[in-house]
Amino acid sequence: GNSVTQMEGPVTLSEEAFLTINCTYTATGYPSLFWYVQYPGEGLQLLLKATKADDKGSNKGFEATYRKETTSFHLEKGSVQVSDSAVYFCALYSGNTGKLIFGQGTTLQVKP
Amino acid sequence: KAGVTQTPRYLIKTRGQQVTLSCSPISGHRSVSWYQQTPGQGLQFLFEYFSETQRNKGNFPGRFSGRQFSNSRSEMNVSTLELGDSALYLCASSLGHRDPATGELFFGEGSRLTVL
Lengths: 112, 116
Fold this sequence. Notes:
The structure holds two protein chains of two kinds. Chain A is mainly beta.
């Protein structure tokens, strides 16, 4: 069945460091891929998305490229800020299942 | 434009009781999905409603049920509560059902249920 695997956290970085959070998926067909972010005490917010192979999603300095050959959708940011501290979820949506499937989440902590 | 509203935000129940959670989607959104979030299991899909019909259901026991009203508002109910039902229950809405944009869900802040 469909599944998403994220790198385990927590990830602790200093401000202005480079961020990579790995995400790989298993799916039949051609799913859409998403990154959601959850700040403390809040619900999830869509960070970026890609709906087909080689698409690059980007938002707020974050980027992720839909790589079908490696079934990956790694999240990157060139220079993180303290305000980026949150839990990041990779997710896939397949029209076959009609539901969003999430990875386990990766906690990012950015220190000044 | 108001976001997804969930009530109550926090509640405490005891084992064996039942609970009803409410979700008001973004105006114009017709699809409502529910997710359970726990530290151990992460985010797990409960069910999705569209046009007052349950379209998808996750792998949860029959104690978990839901419904959607004609104004797209949704409720979920958990009967005979167990300690393991303690979780953050998230509601999410989207415009439609089963199109590529459907994965773009808009989440509420959740209802945090504690079962004692």
